[in-house]
Amino acid sequence: MNEHELGFDTEFMSNAEVEEMLDNLVTTIGDEAAADDSQTAIINPYRIQQVLYTYKVLKYLTKGTKAKVTYALHEPYKSMGVVSVVGSDLLFRNTEWFMKAVELASNFEVYPKTDGTVQMDFTFHGLTRAIE
Questions:
Q1: CA 52, 58, 62, 66 torsion: positive or negative?
Q2: Is the model more confident about 11 or about 74?
Q3: pLDDT, tens digit, for every residue of 1-44?
Q4: Which of 124, 101, 126 minimizes the C-alpha distance to 43?
Q5: Model pTM?
Q6: Residue-wise over 35-72: b if at least 16 C-beta within 10 A, else e?
Q7: What is the DSSP letter of 70?
């Protein structure tokens, strides 16, 4: 496959062409995610353990603060999970442990919220493995 097949050299002539390409991209990703989520799968215990380790470390690191640490498994897809930290003044004194939690995650993001708090999400992919 080359760059022309993937549409990297596409020059858009109109807003409608841009909208159509974006719509097609979103539809394709949604179809792939739905197909992946519908496969029979088994739990990946090592990956689940990494989510729980991250949750416990962040609970420990935020002990004594007003930060709220939560986790969710198998949402929004069965192969995904997330650990979230929400607080108004997040300060982590043990950066080594914090960075280990970041390294375990597939994705890490930090963003401000409209209520004056900051949210950190540690997203994990691969909580399940397809067996089909």
A1: negative
A2: 74
A3: 444 455 555 676 778 877 888 888 778 766 676 666 566 778 88
A4: 126
A5: 0.76
A6: eeeeeebeeeeebbebbeebbebbbebbeeeebebebe
A7: E
